[in-house]
Amino acid sequence: MTEPLVKQAHLNLFIHGVGHHNAAWRTPSSSAERLRTVDYYTELAQIAERGKFDAVFFADGHSNSITAAEDGPLWNLEPLTLLSAMSRETERIGLVSTISATFYTPFHAARLLASLDWISEGRIGWNVVTSMFDAEAQNHGLEKMPEHAVRYQRAEEFVDVVLQLWDSWPTESILIDREEKPDGEPGQYVNGAKLTELNHSGEHFAVRGPLNVPRPPQGHPVLFQAGASEQGRELAARRAEAIYAVAYDLPAGQEYRSDLRRRMRAQGRSPDSVAVMPGLVTYVGSTMEEARAKQRSLDELLPVESALRQLSVFVGQDAAEWEVDAPVPELPPLEDFTGPKGRYATILRIVETERPTVRQLLGRLAAGGGHCTMVGTPESIADEIELWLDEGGADGFNLMPPSLPHSISEFVDEVTPELQRRGRFRTDYDGTTLRSHLGLEVPAGPK
Ligand SMILES: Cc1cc2nc3c(=O)[nH]c(=O)nc-3n(C[C@H](O)[C@H](O)[C@H](O)COP(=O)(O)O)c2cc1C
Fold first, then answer.
1. What is this structure's pTM?
2. Is the CB of 74 under 6 A from ligand 1?
3. Which of 90, 274, 300, 368 gives 20 to 30 Å between its CA and that of 437?
4. Is 380 in the pocket of ligand 1 (CB under 6 A)?
5. Is residue 241 part of a domain?
6. How many A from CA of 332 to the centre of ligand 1?
């Protein structure tokens, strides 16, 4: 495999309902009626595969808030089940799903992911999260979410045990020896001596092992992570093989990526092997005006009341009476804000750098809630992507199309060819596994 002359991007498609813009389902041509059909998701994976993307990704949550459901399609089909079906209709595209270390057990997770890696012939990845909402905990026999720090301690142990389980039944142990031995001993199916009982006994888990699925084709399905907090970033630095990030603009991307790389070095890992992929919302048009018109047409479909309700949560004050076509009122500085700081910091940055009206701010938050947004022609968006790659803001992007499948088809048909023409993205797959797409080795098996 020839090393590309210039840095090439890794591209991931983040599949979410009928698009990441909260009003996408309200467009007459949206795919809202197809959200319970496997064909809808398979077609999205086939579009990403046609674009030679590294992978498609599903987020996952364990609750269904009724008010959120009234506002639009949040959850429909369980992602691991979907990936299994999608793997049969695709050949090269990586298939990534979230797994919650708070609500799964390591044995379940290891078994499901190993099986999917065999079914997909080595194309599986998992995004380790600790989940967020009490409503999720209340579906798993808990009153409220365990403390953030406890969730990450559990996640650290969870990941360690899953990796050991994958190594506990090496494929080399499988003999399928049908021959009876001269001493009359029957042939063996497996050389048991090569299987390992973990007998793990930790603070959160007790797991005997071995796993009852052989070590999968990639050795270990690829581990993704998207931590923002101190513990989240430390887990990513210690274990993640690819990272999903939130970066509203290039300086935010540079800050996050350089911090993660510093932490990886501190863990004795080489940061170049780990792709950091911020979320990216794109509006593509043959002219800047056409692209902006696409953004406006979705923003105008946003029911202001529910959008202002969501904004009130983000800014920790009642925004219901704000004049939507007037500039965003003065907001208290970050240090005086007591709610979740990540998103509030992004809102202050949007207000500071774009001086938006309330309606424009609602639009910015409605699609990707604070992730980077690029509006423009294929050439101007390719320029911005190159800038992030060359200025250390990203190793690629986790695309969050405002409307599906429209926005991802546009990106694959117009932006990807521009990136390929500039040598900034692969023109074809070199390998067949997700690890090969991400330039990752297969981890060495047990000695
Ligand atoms: C691209 C992306 C995808 C995420 N997917 C999920 C998800 O599917 N389920 C979930 O509970 N959290 C998800 N998260 C939230 C993160 O796992 C994490 O909780 C959040 O970034 C806050 O960081 P912290 O956990 O370090 O505080 C995602 C975050 C990002 C940036």
1. 0.94
2. no
3. 368
4. no
5. yes
6. 26
